[in-house]
Amino acid sequence: MTAYTTIAATTDVPLFIFGDHASCHIPREYNNLGLSGDDLTRHIAWDIGTETIIRQLCAHFGCGGQLANISRLVIDYNRDPDAAGLIPEMSDGTIIPSNQKLTAAERQNRIERFHVPYHEALSKAVRRDDNPLVISLHSFTPQPITGEVRPTDIGLLVRHDVPTAEAFRDTVQRNSPQLNVGMNLPYSAYDLNYTVDRHIAPLRLRHLAIELRQDHISCEASAHAMGDMLAKRLTALI
Questions:
Q1: Could you report the per-residue pLDDT of 156-195, keeping only the tens digit for each?
Q2: Which domain holds residue 32?
Q3: Cβ neighbours of 189 (radius 10 Å)
Q4: Crossing angle of helices 162-175/220-235, nearest 10°?
Q5: How many domains does the structure of the chain reveal?
Q6: Could you tell me the CATH number of the domain that includes residue 130?
Q7: Residue 154 in contact with residue 172, Cβ under 8 Å?
C-alpha cells in the first residue's frame, strides 16, 4: 500500500487540490488498530466525502491532485512528525488500542513508511505549475461526541492568504446564502495547519483550506452536489 494517490493533470489549469485525510484505509498488518464496527468508518478515521469531491473537482478542471491512502488513525499527515497527535491514542472519546504506548521504533516506522513519502510527493506537486491556486480539502462532523453542535456549514482555515479566503467566502455567501461560511471555524489555521504551513505558505501561493460539514456530503449524491457548487465558486478565483 502506497502512502498516497496522485491525480494527474489533464489540462494546464493552475489549480491543485489535495486531501490529507481522504482515506479510512488501515493496512491489514495493523489489524484495524484494535477497532471494530463504526469506529473504522466514522469521522475519527477520515474526512468523510473528501475523496469524492477532490476527484470530482480534479476531473471538472482537469487539474492535478493528491489523496491520502491511509487513515489518520494510522498516522495524521496534517501533523508535525514531532506532534503528540501524529499517531492518536484517543480520538473524540474513542481509545485507539494499537496506538497505545508505541515504541519509538514503531513510531519512526510509520513516519518513514507513510508520512515522509506523502509530504515529499506533495512538495514536488505544488511546484509543478506557475503560481497555482492550491486547495486543501477537509471535512468535519456536525457534532463531536465530546463537543458541541457546529452550526458552520463551510469553514475556511485562514492564516497566510486572507484575500483569497475572503473572496471565496463572499462568492459562496452571495450565491448560496443558505450556507453559513465561517473563518477559522470549526478549527483555526493557527492551531491545525501543518501541511499548508510546510508546503504552501513558504512559496507564497494562493490557497484555500476548506472544511465541509459532513452532513452535507455524507453520500455520493450530496457530495457531488457540493462539488458542483464548489466548482462554480472556484472558477472565478482560478
A1: 999 999 999 999 999 999 999 999 999 999 999 999 999 9
A2: 4-235
A3: 20
A4: 120
A5: 1
A6: 3.40.630.40
A7: yes
